[in-house]
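The aim of this short unit is practical: by the end, you should be able to scan a pair of folded records and say something sensible about each. We start with the first protein, listed as its amino acid sequence and then its structure tokens.
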Amino acid sequence: MSKGIITIQSNVNNTIITLAQFKPHRVLSVRSSGILGFKGSRKSTSYAGELVGEQIRLEAKKHGITHIKIQIKGFGDGRYSSLKALQVENTLQIISIKDITPIAFAGCRPKKQRRI
């Protein structure tokens, strides 16, 4: 039984998925929709995210990883479609799914008010 971590970074322009070993943390494979040949606005589609997820699932199978933890970051279109592509065959057992999207809560100080 080999464990791994899959990080899905999905923004409005691209979907990047990283496959790493659990202990020690060593990156095994990185795939993005740009690497698969999508250009421009097609990189951000859910179809491109699905193909990237499929490629990472095959890479995990090749490296002998059976159990994975999934981390999702960002609000792009490829977010859920790549997650579905990882769940298609029951070759990967998903331990946990965690959303690690950073959320701003304070922000910058506002400008002082204009005097009249």
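Turning to the second protein, read its sequence before its tokens, just as you did above.
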Amino acid sequence: MAAAEELGEDREETMTFLGWAESWYRDLLVYQATHRSDDLVNLDMLAEIERQAATINLDRLHSSMQKVISAGAGIQRNLNRRMILEDLLFTVVAER
């Protein structure tokens, strides 16, 4: 809840975080499908991407990615940022 509150204070910061989260899940999906780093955005985090891609379930990965996309859409519609982030963070953590 504290992380959601802090991230939700500034709309631009919230959107930056969601953009990063979307790129992270995209990288995990790409790496899990190809086992190649050529198309990764977060190449500096390759070791962590390899580790997470090897352990995360594909359905959970898709679910988390969809949750991030939905959160961004909700914030674009000016919904309550803190509530959207709480829902996102609780869901993603619970799925781990």
